[in-house]
Amino acid sequence: MADSIDESKNVTVTEEDLENKSKGELIKLAGQLRDRRNELNQMASERASARDDLNAKTREKVDEAQEHREKRDELNEQVQEHKDQRNELNAEANELFDKVDNLKNDLELDEGTSVEQLKEEIEDLEFKQQTEVLSSEDEKELIEKIETKREKLQEKQEKLDQGGDLEELKEEAEEVRSEASKHHQKVTELADEAQKHHNEMIEAYREADEIRDEADEKHEEFVDAQEAADQHHEDFVRVQKRLRELDKKEEEQERSQREEKQEAAREEAEEIYQKFKEGETLDTEDLMKLQKAGKL
Length: 296
What we know:
Elements: H1 15-20, H2 23-107, H3 115-131, H4 136-162, H5 165-277, H6 284-292
C-alpha cells in the first residue's frame, strides 16, 4: 500500500491571502511554504532513491532469470544431443540383436538338445553299454542311439564352429546397448538439471514482478511528493512575487513622500528667501532651511 502524504502538514495559499494578508504575514507564509517544499523535496528524493534501488533489484532478478533461461536452453540442447545419440545407438543395437537372432535361426542353435546335454546323454548311454548286460538286439539298438546322438553332437559343433562370430556379434550388440543406456542416463540427469533451472527461472521472474510492483508503487509515492513539492514551490514563488510587489509599492510611496517633502521644503525655502530679499530679519532655523535648499 502506498505511503500517502500527510496533507494536514501542507500549506495552501489563496488569492484572498495574497491580496489581504500583511507583509509580515506573507513573509511568515513564504517561510512555511519554503520549509514544507524542502521537506517534500527531501521526501521525493528518498522515495526516488528507494524506487531506483527496487528497479536495480528488479534488473538483478531479471538478469538472474535470464541466466537460468540460458542455462536451461543449453542443457536442453545437450539433452537433445544425448537423445539423438541414444536413439542412434539403440537403433544400431536393435540391428545387431536382429542379426544375432537371424544368425541363431540360420544355425538352428536354439532348436533341439544343447551340446552339453548331448554329451551327457552320450556318456550315459556309453556307461550303460559298458556296465549292463544287454541282449544283442538291445545292444545294437543302444549303439545306434549313441551313433545318432554323436552325429547330432557333431552337427551342433560344426554349426557352432560356423557361427564363431555369433558371440562377438552378441557382445558388440550388448556394448552398443550399454552405451545407449549411458546416454539415456545422461538424458535423465541433464533433463532434471534443466527443469531445475527452469523452475528457478520462473521463481526469479516471479520475484522480479513482485519487486517491480513495489518499485511502481514507490514511483507513485515519489510523483505524489514531487507534485506536492512543486505546488508548494509555485505558491512560494507567488508569495515572493506579491512581497516584491508590496516592496515596490512601499518604495514608491516612500519616494512620493520624499518628493512631497522636498517640494514642500523648496516652497518654504522660496518663501523665506523672498522675505530675506525684502529685508526681513531671519532666525537661525530659517537660515538653515535656506542653506539646505541651496539658497545661500
